[in-house]
């Protein structure tokens, strides 16, 4: 029983490491840097068209910003997905997921 629990915990840890996710303050791609406060144009120039654009809304249904999702950035061994939130004309939040 103990061996099965240990194996399950190890499998979960490996899965978590393979899909590490976290909020970031900057993201470098192809020699360019995107960081909090950058404009939509800056992000578009660096990363191109997003795979998805989602309107962010308040609980009352009013528009509060926009979320751009990039499902697969990079090539070779390390690929990323990136979520970029905009409000008030600039990047307010970025979440990166590393895919191996």
Description:
The chain is of the alpha+beta class and 100 residues long. The chain has one domain (21-99): 2-Layer Sandwich (Beta-lactamase Inhibitory Protein, Chain:B, domain 1), CATH 3.30.1450. Helix content is 25%, strand content 48%. It is built from two helices and seven strands; from the N terminus they run αβββαββββ. It has helices at 2-18, 40-47; strands spanning 21-24, 26-29, 32-35, 52-57, 63-73, 79-87, 90-99. The strands form two sheets. The chain has a five-stranded antiparallel beta sheet with strand order 1-7-6-5-4, with no helix packed on it. Strand 4 and strand 5 form a beta hairpin. The chain is globular. The protein starts with a helix and ends with a strand.
Poorly predicted parts: 5-19
Instruction: Give the domain tally.
Output: 1
The CATH topology label is Beta-lactamase Inhibitory Protein, Chain:B, domain 1
Range of strand content: over 45%
Spatial extent as radius of gyration = 17 Å
Q: Largest sheet, described in full?
A: 5 strands, antiparallel
Following the backbone from N to C, one meets helices and strands in this order, namely HEEEHEEEE
For the record, give the distance between the C-alpha atoms at the N and C termini, rounded to a whole number: 31 Å
Strand order of the largest sheet: 1-7-6-5-4
Specify the helix fraction band.
Answer: 25-40%
Give me the count of strands.
7
CATH class: Alpha Beta
Structural class: alpha+beta
CATH architecture: 2-Layer Sandwich
